[in-house]
Design a protein that fits this description.
The chain has 159 residues and is α+β, with helices and mostly antiparallel strands. The chain is 23% helix and 22% strand. The two termini are 25 Å apart.
């Protein structure tokens, strides 16, 4: 299924298949097709629809995406590879951080095992031993389709 069109602003430079192949080769896994399509179309950035529901997280039922990560962005912390390396010791195995909230929390895509393709919210502030992972959607397409906008969401000019 094609990823729902989601416009972004402030994304990285346009990518080619070779850029994705280099990333995959370096880290030893294949990017799921919906993420590949999304990166080739936007290379990350701030989405025009940025609100999502977090079922089960007490006191914080809504999250807001600050930025989807891309590749080759001049701002190091906006890149998939930088986030994967920085957070790999803290994230559960098999998760790729694909976006950040306005805090340190991440939206992650499962890239391995029975959960592959599912989208999760990782609560970076969770106390040790407490649940830090919340299912957001069974697919990236489903997650993107469910994103909403409000008055605080980025406004993109129509092309």
């Amino acid at each position: 299924m094609m990823v729902q069109l989601l416009r972004t602003t402030e994304g990285g430079p346009l990518l080619e298949e070779g850029d994705l192949a280099s990333f995959e080769s370096k880290y030893g896994f294949e990017l799921p097709l919906p993420l590949r399509e999304f990166l080739l179309a936007t290379n990350g950035g701030r989405p025009e629809r940025d609100l999502f529901e977090i079922h089960g997280l007490e006191g914080n039922p809504l999250g807001r995406i600050h930025l989807f990560f891309g590749l080759k962005d001049p701002v190091e912390s906006c890149n998939l590879d930088w986030n994967l390396e920085v957070f790999q010791e803290r994230l559960p195995p098999g998760l790729l951080p694909i976006a950040t909230t306005e805090g340190a929390d991440k939206v992650c895509l499962s890239i391995a095992g029975a959960e592959a393709g599912r989208v999760f919210y990782w609560d970076a502030q969770a106390r040790s031993g407490a649940n830090s992972l919340y299912l957001l959607a069974d697919t990236l397409d489903g997650f993107i389709a469910a994103l909403r906008a409000d008055a605080l969401s980025p406004t993109l000019l129509k092309a």
